[in-house]
Amino acid sequence: MICGELSRLSRLAPLVIAMILLIVLSGALLLADERKLADKDYLPAELQFSDPDIKSLVESTTALSENGDYDQAIRELEKALELSV
Fold first, then answer.
1. 11-64, pLDDT tens digit by residue?
2. How far apart are CA 62 and CA 58, in angstroms?
3. 46-84: b or e for each residue (b if 16 or more CB lie within 10 Å)?
4. What whole-number distance in Å separates Cα of residue 85 and Cα of residue 74?
5. Is residue 84 within 8 Å of residue 58, measured between CB atoms?
6. DSSP for 46-78?
């Protein structure tokens, strides 16, 4: 009787260890993805707009394009391009 239970437990031990490893590794992968999302928002100083007029024009295009006013958004971007050159 005792030998039968020990045999069954010894067969379950690798399964339990595998499940624990699976849970730990999936949690680690989720945390790694979370850091990548934060890194995506970072822009180095060389890629940021230094002129406040250009920055405001480019930022206004986000709201315009979200509202579906693509023509006005393109005009704003063209104005920003003209100011930058």
1. 777 888 888 888 888 887 777 765 554 556 778 888 888 899 999 999 999 899
2. 7
3. eeeeeeeebeebbebbeebeeeeeeeebeebbebbeeee
4. 17
5. no
6. GGS--SHHHHHHHHHHHHHHHTT-HHHHHHHHH
Which pTM was predicted?
0.48
Task: Give the Cα separation of 61 and 10 in Å (integer).
Answer: 64
Cα atoms found within 13 Å of the Cα of residue 51, Cβ hemisphere only: 11
CA distances, 59 to each of 7, 41, 76, 78 (Å): 67, 15, 10, 13
Cβ atoms of 72 and 42 within 8 Å: the answer is no
Cα 57 to Cα 23, 47, 53, 73: the distances in Å are 47, 16, 6, 9
What are the tokens at 4? 């039968």
Residue that has been written with the tokens 């949690």 in this structure: 27
